[in-house]
Design a protein that fits this description.
Elements: E1 2-15, E2 21-27, E3 29-31, E4 42-50, E5 56-65, E6 71-81, E7 90-98, E8 108-116, E9 119-129
Parallel strand pairs: 3-9
Antiparallel strand pairs: 1-2, 1-4, 4-7, 5-6, 5-8, 8-9
């Protein structure tokens, strides 16, 4: 089984040399001056846990979807889960900057889905208000 322990949107995200996540400015919504609007780049950060038998390379799809079900943003995340001794789970921390190329046309709740093997593992919501 693969599961997501956390997935958040933030103004900045990184990772220390020891693997610890660094998050600054966690948010769930943005206010824009007018619509349509270009979103300022932001970060998404997550920790994904894989059971011992799921070691190896995996590809995840990250999608931003509007309330009508339209995909506004899509990207792939590649992860390699190491095989660990004593059948311990493996972890992957990911942080990446999101650039939504097209303007957001309307207010509403947008969601980020992390998809693996056609299954949505986690969702993070982004409220856009004008």
């Amino acid at each position: 089984m693969v599961q997501v322990n956390f997935m958040v949107l933030s103004s900045f995200a990184s990772q220390l040399a020891n693997g610890s996540p660094v998050l600054a400015g966690i948010f769930r919504g943005v206010k824009v001056e007018e619509l349509p609007a270009r979103l300022e780049p932001f970060f998404i950060a997550m920790e994904v846990e894989a059971d011992p038998h799921e070691f190896g390379e995996h590809v995840f799809d990250l999608r931003m979807i509007d309330e009508d079900g339209n995909v506004v943003y899509e990207n792939q995340i590649e992860a390699n889960f190491e095989q660990r001794p004593d059948f311990l789970p493996s972890y992957m921390y990911f942080c990446g900057q999101i650039f939504v190329a097209n303007p957001v046309e309307k207010e509403g709740i947008y969601r980020f889905d992390l998809v693996w093997n056609n299954e949505t593992l986690a969702q993070a919501r982004l409220e856009v208000a004008a």
